[in-house]
Structures are given as C-alpha cells and as structure tokens.
Design brief:
globular, 5 strands, 33% helix, 30% strand, alpha/beta
Length: 120
C-alpha cells in the first residue's frame, strides 16, 4: 500500500521557519508505515542546527512506538537536546508519551507559541 493511494494522509503537514526555530507540523497516524517520512522531515529540520525544533503534534490522531522512536532519534541529532520541543499533543498522543515514559524525557508544551517562547 502506498501513501499516494488516498487512504493515508501525508504525516508531514508543514515545515516552516519561525525566527530562529524550525516548526514541523505532523498529523494523522504516525506509525511504522510513514515513520520514514517523519524521520526525513525531522532530520532536515535539525540539519541546520536551529536554535530550537518545535514538533507540532496538534493534528496527530495516533502515534505508535516506531514513531516515538523517530522522535527520540531526531532529538539526538540536535546539539542541544533540550531545544527539541513537542507541542500541543492531543489526548491520545499525550497518553502514548506518558505510557512510554517519554513525557519525562521531552519538554512538552501546550501550544506551539508556548514552545517558541520557552527557554531552551
């Protein structure tokens, strides 16, 4: 099954520079089938060593362990791991972060604007 068959949405909804930050907006279901697309977008976001990378999770409906692993891997690409911020996770995504224990390893903000203003 390819992602172009219309059944699955592109997991990367947008990437934009906001000041010294790179904001990556993800959406839909993040899982084994599209983890490579998510990894590619986050690797590119970290490539220029921005002051911070904000991952907007507000449109994410589901995230599995593979996609959570991609977040960990991507964070390790930044010199300042504390500058890799998660923003606006919905209930299911927040639960996945809590169950996996990753909420203790990532800084999670209620909104993208909050993450952009946070001290890193």
């Amino acid at each position: 099954m390819s992602d172009s068959d219309g059944l699955r949405k592109d997991p990367v909804l947008g990437v934009e520079q906001q000041g010294d930050a790179c904001v990556v907006k993800l959406g839909g279901e993040l899982d084994l089938y599209n983890a490579q697309q998510v990894r590619h977008a986050l690797t590119n976001a970290c490539a220029d060593s921005p002051a911070r990378v904000v991952v907007d999770l507000s449109e994410v409906e589901f995230i599995d362990s593979t996609a959570l692993g991609v977040l960990i891997e991507s964070r390790s690409r930044l010199g300042n791991r504390g500058a890799f911020l998660l923003a606006a996770p919905g209930l299911e995504t927040r639960r996945a972060l809590e169950i996996s224990g990753l909420d203790r390893h990532f800084t999670v903000h209620e909104s993208v604007s909050e993450a952009l203003l946070a001290k890193v």
